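Limitations
The C-alpha cells in this dataset are predictions for the assembled complex, not deposited experimental models. Users should treat interface geometry with appropriate caution, especially where small molecules or nucleic acid strands are included. An illustrative entry is reproduced here so readers can see what is and is not provided.
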Amino acid sequence: MSIKIGEFIHPTSVEEALKYKGKPNVMFVAGSTAVGKVESINVKKMVNLLTLPLAFVEKEGNIIRIGATTPLDDVENSPAIKKYLPILIDAVRHVGAWGIKTMATMGGAVATAFPWSDVIPALLVLDASLTISRRGGRLTLSMEEFISKRISMLKSCIIEYIEIEIPQTTNWGFEKYAHSSFDIAMLNIAYLKTEDNLRVAVGARPGIAKRLKNFEKHRDILEGVKEAELKDDARASKWWREQVLSSRLKELVS
Amino acid sequence: MVERTGAIIKAQGVGIMKVKITVNGEKKVFEIEPSEKLADTLRRYGYTEVKIGCRSGNCGSCTVLLNGKPIRSCLKFTAQAEGAYIETVKALNKDGLHPLQKAFIEAGAVQCGFCTPGMLLTAKALLDAKEKPTKDEVKEALKGNLCRCTGYKQQIDAIMKVVNGR
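Predicted assembly:
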C-alpha cells in the first residue's frame, strides 16, 4: 500500500470542510479504518473530519440523532441508544474488534456502505434518515435514497447526522451469520415488527443491504428470497444464503 | 521518505508537519509526514514496543490506548492524533510490573510475545472501564487481538485472575 498526502487539513466547522468538496486531489477521512482496504492514496490534501463537532448522541422527543463522527463504540455504550434503539446496539456489537469500533464512525459506516456492513441493515429497518450538508444548504433524505446516490452525493456533501424515530415496538432482531464473531458477515438480517407493519433488511447478500419491501407487503417467502437477489461469493454460496433467509422469513410471518 | 539518523528516523520531504502528542505521560512533539501512521511514528521515535503485524487493522498487534481506548495504530494517521494521550505497553510498568503483566507471566500467556503488548493494553482498557468483567466480556474484548502461539486460554485465565483478585 502506498500513501502520499501533501497536507492534512483540520477544519473546525462543516462549512469550512465543505470548501474542499469537489476539488481535485482532495480526500476526506474520519475513523480511517477503511484506509487498510485502500490500495494506494495520492492526494494533495486530506481533510480530517474528526475535528468537526459531529460526535454526539442526542434525544429530542421521540427522535434520536447520532452525529456522523460518533465512534461505533460510543454508540454501543450510549444509554439512550441502549434504551430506545437496542437493535442498533446488537448490530454495532457484531462489528469487528473493539479497537476498530473505537475508530470507525457511524458516518463512515454509512458513507462506505460496505456490502457486509452490520450497521446498514439495522438503519434500514429503523427507517433512518440522513441530514447532509452541501454548499447550497442542508438536505434530509432516507437511508435508501442516500445509498442509491451516495457515490455522486459524497462528491459534494458531508454527512452531519443520522436521525431515527424511536420505534413503538419491542419485536425486533438483528442476526449476523459469520464464520466467527470477529469475521465479516456471510449474511445479516434485521427486522422490526409491529402489529400491522413488518420491516426486513438483508445485508452481505453479498451486495449492499436492502429492504425487502415486496416481502413486507405480501409476506410471500419465495418472493422475499428472490427480492434479496442473493449471490455466491467466497464466504458463502447463493444456495446457503437462500436457505437461511427462507427459514428466517418463514419464522417472521408465522 | 524517511532517513535513519541515529536513534530516531527523521521524516523528510514536502509537507513535514509537527504533531503534539502525550505518550506515556510525556509531552512530545513529533515531526511527521502527513501520510504517516501512528504506529510508524511511535516506532520511529523509539517506542518499538508497538508491534506492527498486518497493517490492515486485523491482528491487533499495534494496539495502543488513545485517550484510554484501544485503537489500531497501524490505521490511524498520526496527524489525527494531535493533542491525544497515548499509552503504549510501557505505560503499564512505570512502577514495577502491572498486575496484568504479572498474571500473564504466571499463567504462561506469553510465547513469542509479539501480540502481548496489544493484548495487555486491550485488557487494561477493559479493566479500567469495568471493575468486574465476566469471562465472556474478556473474550469479547480480546477477540480482535490475534495470537498464533497460545490459543488464548492462558491470556483469558490471566486476565480473569486479576479480575477475581479485585
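Some entries come with short summary sentences. For this one: Chain B has two domains: 2-90, 99-164.
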